[in-house]
Structures are given as C-alpha cells and as structure tokens.
Automatic annotation (TrEMBL):
Name of the protein in question: Large ribosomal subunit protein bL9c
Originating organism: Durio zibethinus (Durian)
GO BP: translation
One cellular-component annotation, GO: ribonucleoprotein complex
Record-stated family: Belongs to the bacterial ribosomal protein bL9 family.
Gene3D superfamilies: Ribosomal protein L9, N-terminal domain (3.40.5.10)
Membrane-spanning intervals of the chain: none
Keywords: Ribonucleoprotein, Ribosomal protein
One of the record's GO molecular function terms: structural constituent of ribosome
Annotated ranges, domain Ribosomal protein L9: 43-79
Signal peptide as annotated in the record: none
Any one Pfam family match given in the protein's UniProt record, by short name: Ribosomal_L9_N
Entry keyword Cell membrane: no
Name of the gene this protein is made from: LOC111310401
Length: 217
C-alpha cells in the first residue's frame, strides 16, 4: 500500500506544481500503469487471444498491475489510444484476410452411381481378413482333425461392417450384407451382398459377394 500512497502524492504534487485544475489531462493509460494506481482499470487492446479475457483486437479493461507486469512486457496488449488502435486495425487487415467463400457442389445421380460402382468393385475384388481366438474347450473335444475349429466369439454382422469400413474404407449399411447367422469357425467365406440393381455386375460374376477370411491370433 505504500507505493500506492506514494503514487497518489506524486500526482498531487505534479498538479500543484503545474497549477493544473483539469484532471482529465492525467488520464493517459501509461501514466496510471507506471504510477501503480490500482483502483482504476485500464482500457487496453489485446494483440493475442487470451482465455477468459478476450480475443485479439478486442478492447478490455484490466488492472494496471496486470497490464504493467504481464501484458505489456510480453506485448500481449497495448494501451487503448488512437495510434495503437490504428496499428492493430491495419495489421488485422494484412494478416487476417477475408475468408474465401466455399462453394458447395452438389453431386448428381451419375456421380453417385459411379461412386457406388467403385465401392462395389472394391468390395468384390478385396478380401477381408479377421483374427480371432480359438475355443480351446471345443478344440480339445473334436472327434477328428478334420472337424472345423470353432471361434471363442463368433463374428457378427456389425463386426463385419466395422471391419469393411476400417480395412476397405467403404461404408455399407446392415441391409447391404446378408448374414443370417454369425461366422463361428475358422476358414474362408463368401458373404452375399445386397446392392442396388443399377450397379452392373463384373464379367463372370453372378451376384455380389464379400470374401472373408478368419485366421487365428
């Protein structure tokens, strides 16, 4: 509190020596920031966005000590006077040009059909590989070695759809995949696909299928 009282006395002495009756001439922000008068907040212009205070270019009120000790040394804010306000406006025009307008292009039916054809050809030409654990109890209880090896947890339709999106980057709906029962054994499978009739089948293909291979971990 001592330096606050000292700042007040210094201002009174300046006013008395200069015979100044109008206190408005001592309202410059830098004067208050340097003298340490804390009961009056300063208006400053932020040069950088600060959380819980404001965005860059906004005018906010802060305590003189906060401005003097933190904002001003790091050039995070400048006093709200005409020359600084003009510089901030000009810099924002240079470094923050107006955003270009993005035109949204709507796809027609032909473009969508071509995308569907590419996705369908990717499905029919690729092989989906999954790794699962063996059901140890049923593996030991097999009657012969030729019996199929069962999985610890069967592969469901939702898992196949998720793996198609992850491995092949193709989004399919549950109604596009025909899987009456989950896949419960190791091996290679052909899972039928139900795609729109407008998509032509490749040569030599009777219907759309997805090649799935389940291997052990």
């Amino acid at each position: 509190m001592a330096y606050i009282q000292y700042g007040r006395n210094a201002l009174r002495q300046i006013i008395n020596d200069a015979n100044i009756h109008n206190r408005d001439c001592l309202m410059h922000p830098l004067l208050y920031a340097c003298q340490g008068i804390r009961y009056r907040k300063l208006e400053v212009i932020l040069t950088t966005s600060i959380e819980k205070l404001g965005k860059a270019g906004e005018t906010v009120k802060v305590a003189p000590g906060y401005f003097r000790n933190h904002l001003m040394p790091k050039l995070l804010a400048v006093p709200n006077i005409d020359k600084f306000a003009y510089l901030i406006r000009e810099q924002r025009k240079i470094y923050q040009p107006e955003e270009e307008k993005v035109q949204v292009v709507t796809k027609n039916v032909e473009d969508k059909t071509k995308e569907y054809e590419k996705a369908a050809n990717r499905l029919i030409n690729a092989q989906l590989v999954l790794r699962r654990f063996i059901n140890v109890e049923k593996f030991r209880a097999r009657a012969t070695k030729d019996d199929p090896i069962e999985l610890r947890s069967p592969v469901t339709k939702d898992e196949l759809i998720a793996e198609v999106a992850r491995q092949l980057c193709v989004q399919i709906e549950p109604e596009n995949l025909y899987l009456p029962t989950p896949l419960s054994t190791f091996g290679e499978f052909e899972v039928p696909l139900r795609l729109p009739k407008s998509i032509p089948l490749p040569e030599g293909k009777v219907h759309w299928t997805l090649q799935v291979k389940i291997r052990g971990k």
